[in-house]
Amino acid sequence: MKIGELSRETGVAVRLLRYYETQGLLTSHRSEGGHRHYGPEAPATVARIRALLAAGLPTRVIRELMPCFAGDGAELQACVLDHLRTQLAELDSRITDLTQARTALGGILEASTRAIATA
């Protein structure tokens, strides 16, 4: 299938499909005319990429995980579960940091609002 067909079938912009390819997440073959052609597994591959991106994984990590899929969905083999647990722990840490930053910013905003109101 051509890139436009893959885009329509998956709902992913052509530009993103090209980006996935440059990141080593998606492969195509070129026709004699230079057009990209994707195999029948491409829509499932794009769905997997989208699922992992939605889970907050960066493309460099997704590239490492691509050979480790088990089945047709986003399920991965047991050998990469520790890697996923590490990614989850990193997300938890970022959430904690963001929550603390939000609390601090809220405090500054509240103090500033009070100061303006009493001035």
TrEMBL record:
PROSITE patterns in the record: HTH_MERR_1, HTH_MERR_2
InterPro entries, sorted: DNA-bd_dom_put_sf, MerR-type_HTH_dom, MerR_fam
UniProt keywords, alphabetically: DNA-binding
Ranges where the HTH merR-type domain occurs: 1-68
Source taxon at top rank: Bacteria
SUPFAM superfamilies (alphabetical): Putative DNA-binding domain (SSF46955)
Keyword DNA-binding: yes
Presence of keyword NADP: no
Organism, as annotated: Actinoallomurus vinaceus
Name of the protein: MerR family transcriptional regulator
